[in-house]
Known about the structure:
By secondary structure, the chain is mostly helical. It contains 25 helices and two strands. Strands 1-2 form a two-stranded antiparallel ribbon.
Amino acid sequence: MRLSALLTTSLALCGLCVGLGCNSSPKGDGTSAKSAASTAKPAASSSIAAASTGATSTKKLNPIDLAKIGKTRVGKDLINLGKDAKQIGAALKNKGPGLTEAQFEALLIGLKDCEVKDNGIDRKCPAYKAYREGRKNRGTLVKDWGGMLSGMGRKHIKNTAPAVRIQAANLMGSIFGSSKESQAAIITAAKSEAHPRVLKAMLRSISSSIAKNDDVRKLMLLKADHPDKKVRMEVVGSLTSSWARGTKGTLEKAMSMVEKDAAPEVRQYACRRLGERADERALPLLKTLTAKSDDEKLYSACVRGVIAMWSSPVPHKAPSEAAFKHTLTLFKKTPRSKAHPPWTSISAVEWAAKKRFQEAAPWYKNDELVAVLMDVVKDRKANWLARTGAVDALKRLGATPVQFGELAKSYADAAGKPRDRKSVV
C-alpha cells in the first residue's frame, strides 16, 4: 500500500479521533537502493517517446500528510499494519468500541515472552500476532493513535520484558506527539535503558518534542554517542528533523556524526538527512563531501542532502538558493560516470514542481534545471538509472514534447537494439 494513501487514512483517523475527544497533547528509508536496483527494469528510448506525449502517472501528495504524519511512529505503524491494502481497510471498516483497556493491557503484558530481535519484536511470536490482531479495529486504533492509551504505556515502561517496554513506549506517542507526562517518563526510563531496540522506540516516541522540551534535546544529544548504530540513526533522524530547527547544538552534532561516526551507514544517513533542516550552515560540509565520488554511497547520500535543502516533498519555508546552485554545479560536472550523478538522488529534484516551493523560491530557474537534466540524459557515460531518473524528473518539471523529441533523436542509434543497459535512458 502506498505511503501517501496510508497517511491520508491516518489523517482521517486523526479527524475521527478529534471528534471522539482524544487527548490533544502534542513521530525511510524504506526500500534500499540495492533492492531498487535489482528490481528496476531498463527503460529504452521508448521511455522518452512516451514522455514526449505527456504521459505521466504523477500523483499529488498531500503535504500535510508528510509533514505531520510521515515521520511519526504512526506513519511507521501504518506501514507495518498496511502491508496489504485490504488489511488496513478491513481494520478501519471493523467498527465498534474495540478492546476494553483491560483486554488491551492483557495483550500488552502477554508480550513478555516474545523475543526482541535486531529489527524489533519477533513477528512470529503468537502473543505479538494476537496483539496486532487485537488492534485491527477502528476504535482500538483511534485510542492508540490518539494517545488515549498513554497512561498504560507509562504504567509498563519499566516492565522487565523488552517487548512489553517497546510497545509501552509506542503507546506514549500519538498523531499529536507525546504528553509532558509521557515525555518525563520516557526520559527517566531511557537514561538507564540497556536494550537498544527498546531505547530506539523510546526516542522515537518523544522525538517531535525536541524543541518544546529541552530535556528531550539533551537526551538526544546524549544518546548520539550510543554504541548501537540503529539507536544513533534514530537520534540522527531527530536531530535533523524540522522539529529540531532552532535548537542548540543539534545540527552541529549531526554534522559531527557525518564526519566521525564509526558506522558508514550512520554517516550516510546523517549526510542525507542534513538537508532536511534547510540550514545553510551545513552546506560547506556538504560541498566538501560532494567534491569527490570515491565513496559512492556517501557521495550519493550527501548529494541527496544538498538537494533536500531546496527540493523537498514538504516545501521548506525558506529553501536554500545556494544549495540549488550547487546542485546545478554538481550535475554539470563531467566526466559523468556510474557513480556521478548518483541515480539514487537525481529524481529528488522533482519536488521543485510544487507550487508552494516555487512561491517560496522566487530565485528558482526551472529552465536551467531542465537544461542540465537533459544534458545528463544525453550523456551515455552517466549511469543508465541516473538517466532514467532524469527523464522521470523532466516529466514532472514540465519538459516540453519538443525537448523530449530532442532527447529521442540523441538515442536514434538505439532503435532496434536489445534493451540492454547501454541503450537505455
